[in-house]
Amino acid sequence: MMCRSLCQLIVSGLILSLSSMVSSDACAQLTIGRQIIEPVNPIIDKVPVDVGTVRDVLENQVEQGVGNTFETLANIPAPQFTVPSPLSLTSPAGNLVLKEVKAPDGFLAVKSEWLVVGSEADKTHFSHPDITIESSHYLTAIDQWVYRLKVSTNLDELSQIRNSLPTSLKEQVGRNHIYLAQNMGELQSPETYEIHENPAPLENQKNSQDKQTSIATTGKPKVCQVPVRIGMIDTNIAHNHQALKHLVIEQQSFLPQALPTTQLHGTSVASLLADNMLTGSHLYNASVFYTRNSISQGATLLSLIDGLNYLVAKHVDTINMSLAGPENPVLANVIKKISEQGIQIIAAVGNEGPASPPLFPAAYPSTIAVTAVDSKQAIYRWANQGNYVDFAASGVSVEVAHPDGTISRETGTSMATPFVSARYACLFRASSNQAQALATLRDQAIDAGAPGRDPVFGVGILQ
């Protein structure tokens, strides 16, 4: 009897411990270094549409008994979140152009650089021996100025630089963080299909056209029947690729001078958007990513903000951001101001694995966060998870345009995001109402995983 009572006490303790852990996870309150991510209420949850009963998977597992409790504990993934090593980028002449560092919050940033958003008059507050204004300009999108500051080592932490500023600016300062594109390259070496610019012999040309027609139609969703205006923050794109010929494309670079760049990621994302865009639709691209190495592209926060400012001026329906990185008060301010203007931002949740902390801008409440599934609707194994995930879409080994004129395959939450962006833009154009477009998008999602919304698939899969 005593043994049984002792066992019951131990079991009760395990369940209470796990329930506490579940409660903490449900609030998504994670400590990242010295930073606390507060609970968020995703924008899709604010839409007044009932899509089913919301259930918490882990709580159900607790209720099912101790056997499932031990199984759950055994299946908790080990931390997988990693930040790449910082790099120093030089010009062809050997001059240092950009030096990355790993900031105290664990993410990459430009060494000793901070951003502040405020009024033109606020520049008087930067008269400090340890602060130099490197650049400043007006942002029409948010009706504020952005200042890029270089600070001394003595001032290079958030508490110190905030102490040097008036109260009105304390919450409008953040590091010039670096954000990374969210693709994982090819999973395998697929067959590529070359698109010839020059005429080939008639028989070969016909075979090539048949093959291209097959690629363009097989498994593709129905193209939107109204012209849309979509913005994207990415690398430069190869706008003359055959897959993009039906679009009106405009792009502008916001890269610091002399940084190496690529067309690979941007062309892939643009082609996935183009798959679902009617002929004559407009695609606006803000090129912000520099090449870090053969598999990684980075963008400074200042470049992101300038790119967003450009896209807002183009009156786009939505902005695709296939990138992820740290929370930053400056980015949060800009995203909030843009969202208040009715422009929906749609972002990749990230490829850092189920144990990763929330990444941004996807984890901001006003942003639609997209994860990736494969052709069998299984979740992409390296996709981030959390209560901020809104939708899932195909993003594993998907066909994309390659800058060299061929078709290749790419994987990652970056590749899932364009489908949702194009679908939302189409719904928005049809209704001219953001809430209605979001509600319809939610209705179209196919529930997956646990019944109702869950931290893996969000509301469900869009096809």
From TrEMBL:
- Which keywords belong to this entry? Hydrolase, Protease, Serine protease, Signal
Task: Give the compositionally biased regions (Polar residues).
Answer: 204-217
**Residue span(s) of domain Peptidase S8/S53:** 228-460
Mind telling me which SUPFAM superfamilies this protein's record contains?
Subtilisin-like
Keyword Signal part of the UniProt annotation = yes
Renumbered to this chain, region (Disordered) spans 199-218
Tell me the protein's name.
Peptidase S8
